[in-house]
Amino acid sequence: MVQIPLAVSREFVSGLNFFSEGKVRDIYDLPDHPDNLLPVASDRISIFDFVLPAVVQNKGAILTAMNVFWRKIVLDPSMQDIVAYGSGIDAYLPKALQGNPKLQKRALVVKRLDMLPFEAIVRGYLTGSGLVAYKKTGEVCGHRLPEGLRDGSRLPCAIFTPTTKAEVGHDEHVDAKSIALKYGKDPENLSLQVYALAHAIALSHGIVIADFKLEWGFNSEGRLCLGDEVITPDSSRFWDVKDWERAILEGRTPQSLDKQFMRGWGMEHGIHERDPANPEDVSYVHCLKVPAEVLEQTTRLYRYIFWRLTDQKLEVFQRDQMGIDVQPTPVRVDVVLGSRSDLKYAKPTLVYLEASKKQGLVRPSLHIISCHRNPGVLLKYAEDTSADVVVAAAGKAAALPGVLVSLLRYFGNYHTPVIGVAMEGGTEDADSAARLSIKELPGQPVLLDKDGQPFFGAEDLRDACELAVTGEFLPAEVGSIKEAEFDLDIAELLKN
Predict the structure, then answer these.
(1) CATH classification of 1-327, choosing from 3.30.70.20, 3.40.50.150, 3.40.50.1100, 3.30.470.20?
(2) pTM of the model
(3) pLDDT in tens, 156-169
(4) How many Å apart are CA 387 and CA 407, to the nearest integer?
């Protein structure tokens, strides 16, 4: 049985009998519906089979919403265990628990299943424990793979690589043939089918699903159904397609958009080398303090991948797709123009912002600050701003977006995204210069449109503001610091 730190022990759902406790979910009986259960997703987070003594804000709600998203889009209703979600769970709850948005965000009503004792893992790309096994033997769970593969390599075809489902300790790889001999080919075939469809859907959103874990069980009619969770950042690896393409060329691992970020922190503290069956190791992990910035970044990652895959912010999805009475928090958006002359292009933007403000979606502010003529003012703005997102627009040299990002970083603010907009300059050269000043910044710190191009002109300024209001963003990477150099020896440099 997994050990839960006291700091993150479960919150009891009053009036329901406790059924079981997992690393993340607490499960309850439903008194008037004996064939169903109520799993409630917590904000706990586990890595390397340890539950950490910390919570990730909104994680349980994100996992539940993601589960609903994939079940509605990917699966045949007869293949899943979900009976009700969102406001629909009220029909199965005692009256005292009905109409509770907090519970509606995190709980599902599911069928009782006789779960199979293995985890059905599908890999379309080589990474993680699959890469470790491949380096040792050239195989993963009995699948012989081509030579020369490396971290992030796409496999010739997706493979089924099951593992044990350990109550205590680490899961172990299992030969896929042994699972087929004992349980038939359905778990493998159905898992591969779900992966193929989900992978195609994710690719259409610019996301690679490198691998995922499913859990199967038999319902009361003897039909194989999916249980637990489906294609969430807890159970899957997600990469941005463009970052994956660059990573393959550069020989690095793609940036993860899932729990791998937290695993990276855990590896820095040696958690991956600890044994969850050893009380001393459990005590060590439970005494660790997870930094607030690591937890905050994990929340951003989970919210970001949810938005990328669903095209909706979490709260909008909960309201529109799950029927929950929840209102999005207004986004603080600053629009910074480099010149008053840019105002003539801003009317569509101002109309959109005013309409969104009346809907309670945004708290907008409009500023005019030239990075060339008001450098001190821009410096002070970067130090003091409390914006959630900044839309920076300028024409001709269009230095404003890049300079503003640099100043925000100077003050240690990596969390405020800057969307860059190149404004019309009256000539082809001016327009080209404005675009290039944003697109060709080293490391691309200014956000571009979905096609990797700078926003340009009046209509794009409006679109950039819509993205600021409706989108999710990741903090800019810290990157390496380049030291300034003074009084270089010119003669010595000429010798070299």
Answers:
(1) 3.30.470.20
(2) 0.93
(3) 999 999 998 766 55
(4) 14
Show me where the domains of the chain are located. 1-327, 329-470
Place of tokens 């380049």: 482
Query: Tens digits of per-residue pLDDT, 214-262?
Result: 999 999 999 999 999 999 999 999 999 999 999 999 999 999 999 999 9
- For the domain spanning 329-470, the CATH number is 3.40.50.1970
